UniProtKB/TrEMBL annotation:
Domain HTH gntR-type, chain residue ranges per copy: 11-79
Species: Paraburkholderia acidisoli
Highest taxon, organism lineage: Bacteria
Record has Cell membrane as a keyword: no
SUPFAM superfamilies associated with the record: Chorismate lyase-like, Winged helix' DNA-binding domain
Alphabetical UniProt keywords: DNA-binding, Transcription, Transcription regulation
Name under which the protein is recorded: Histidine utilization repressor
PROSITE patterns: HTH_GNTR
GO molecular function: DNA binding; DNA-binding transcription factor activity
GO process terms (BP): L-histidine metabolic process; negative regulation of DNA-templated transcription
Keyword Lipoprotein attributed: no
Gene: hutC
Length: 237
């Protein structure tokens, strides 16, 4: 098996097998209801121990990607789980729906060893990925996004151009969100945020704290600051 890496560290063999299976499904090569190769066949194909293949398949079944039928085999699961995926709207789409132009100013795109971010992503160690972006509507800043991302879920995050595609759109396109946790506050922003959002001193913000899950993994932890005079939050689940 060809070794793949995340942040220079070898990707475990079971994780490589999981990504191989997911790639087959995403490409359409394996469709819902198709039988997947047996553990014996995968052991031969990847040159790994049976327990490694078993772990990969077991985790994919726990994530609802595969189903195992005793005495028959393992199958690509029907995509019914998509009806339970939370639809978290992309700010660029919201702006476009109002007939306005979206733009993004990328302030930072970097690895981070922030201990609070590592804990929020429920990882044992860093680095994790970090981005800071200001989103603008018709040239006026309306959102300051401070996001930490799990590199195990999105290993190519730092290679993206987020002036062309928002982080939200990029991540949902690759791996639909299956669970989310929200907290919303009204509070005064720190000076740096206030300056990037071109706010008056003392003006309050709406602050949204959100974590999202892909399968069993915390995919991202983000803080979204919005000037209360220029923004309101609304949505359905």
């Amino acid at each position: 098996m060809q070794k793949k890496t995340v942040n220079g560290a070898p990707l475990p063999a079971y994780e490589q097998i999981k990504r191989h299976v997911l790639a087959k499904i995403e490409s359409g090569a394996w469709k819902p209801g198709d039988v997947v190769p047996s553990e014996t066949e995968m052991v031969k194909e990847f040159g790994v121990a049976r327990m490694t293949v078993s772990r990969a398949l077991r985790e994919l079944m726990a994530d609802g990607v595969l189903n195992r039928v005793r005495g028959s085999g393992t199958y690509v699961a029907p995509r019914q789980y998509e009806s339970t995926v939370l639809q978290i709207r992309n700010i660029a789409d919201e702006i476009a729906a109002r007939g306005h132009r979206h733009a993004a100013r990328v302030l930072a795109l970097e690895p981070s060893n922030d201990p609070n971010a590592i804990a929020a992503l429920e990882l044992e160690a860093g680095p994790v990925f970090h981005s800071r972006i200001v989103h603008l509507e018709e040239g006026e800043p309306i959102q300051y996004e401070d996001r930490y991302v799990n590199p195990e879920v999105f290993p190519d995050y730092l290679a993206q151009d987020f002036t062309v595609e928002t982080p939200n759109h990029y991540m949902v396109r690759l791996a639909p969100i299956q669970r989310a946790e929200f907290r919303i506050y009204a509070q005064k922003p720190e000076a740096r945020v206030r300056q990037y959002l071109d706010m008056e001193i003392g003006e309050p913000c709406l602050l949204l704290l959100r974590r999202t899950w892909v399968g069993r993994h915390v995919a991202t932890s983000v803080r979204l600051w919005h000037p209360s005079s220029r923004f309101h939050l609304a949505g359905t689940v």
